[in-house]
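ESCALATION

Customer reports they have been waiting on this structure for their group meeting. Please prioritize. Original submission:
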Amino acid sequence: MARDADATPDPNVTSEPTTSPDPLPDAERDAAALAATLREARERRDDAVDAVEEHGESTLSTVRDAVQRADRLLDRYVDSATGTGDFQAYVEFQGEFAAVVEDLDEDVPGRDAFERANEAVDGRRLSESDFERAREALSPARELAGRLAEREAAEAALHDAERDATRRVDALDDRIAELERLVELGEADLTAPTGELREPIAAYNDAVGDAFDDFRRESSARELLAFVADAAETPFVDYAAPPPELLAFLDSSPADGAALPDLLEYADYSASKLDHYVDDPGAFTARVRPHRTYLERLSAEPLTVDWPPPAAETLRFQREELVSVVAKFAPEPTVARARELREAADHPEYERLRRAAEAEAELSDEEVERVASGEAAAELAEARDRRESLAATLDETGEGE
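Update from on-call: job pushed to the front of the queue and completed.
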């Protein structure tokens, strides 16, 4: 029967304590389990090593070899030496099996198991049950021999546990870095007037884009690539240097006066049509067409300033180089826009505005809410705790960092 919602709670009934949900995604949730597996694997390896050292690897190898000899004999003769089978096989089996026991020193651990196994098959007539009793009698010796395999398996299990834990530590490092970035950006002032930086940067980017388009369209391809080759030597201008064979061809070809758009148009011409524009259509095809993608992608992008913008000091250095590089092809108003970037970099609240711009560009509304509610900080703290605990367990096993 349903309980009345307004009924007085029974003071004798203890409610279950509520627990907060685990803030980390499934991928980061198993750090404790990995640490436990790691400790168990280490204990297993240590126990296996101790078990081998009790008698020594050489002695256990002797026991293992004897068990393998005995098992091979039992398997080989179980049909021929039992019942009314081959008498010769029966004689060979008993002689060879007895030799396995005789070849073992008296003090070899597990020798008594071989003696009991030999007694099980030392009869005038043998049955399959005698062979089974011999196999059962060998169990203690087989356990001793198995210590070598167990040590190998335990060491492999420990290796796998260390590998898995190391990978999880690396994954937690990545997660921590993401969460640190999220918390850092989430604390930015999203009301900051980022337009005070955006406007001069956008004005410069638009101006240099238009100027470069004019330069690309009106100057010869040789002149354009010579500019790009020089600009590529500038640290803050990320042009890829033109292919040397392309520069050499343009320097020596009558087509060197053609602008880049015309050069690209020539690349589509047939050999007969191309013959009207260049002296050697074959050389043109061989030198220009392979680099068509490079030529098509030449743009003003390496001359622009990213948004969100870089650190103030970086923008100052970039501005100095841009003024010098852009002045080689752009009109004075564009160069003036480049000079104004210094004023943006010297803005008294540059870092606050830049951080706000980064937050606007990188964070979704949901991520902003996660920071505001403290959820992201809780995830970060939990990830750090789990990373620290798992790394400490790795240190205990000798893996370390």
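Sent to customer with the following note: The two ends are 60 Å apart (CA to CA).
Escalation resolved.
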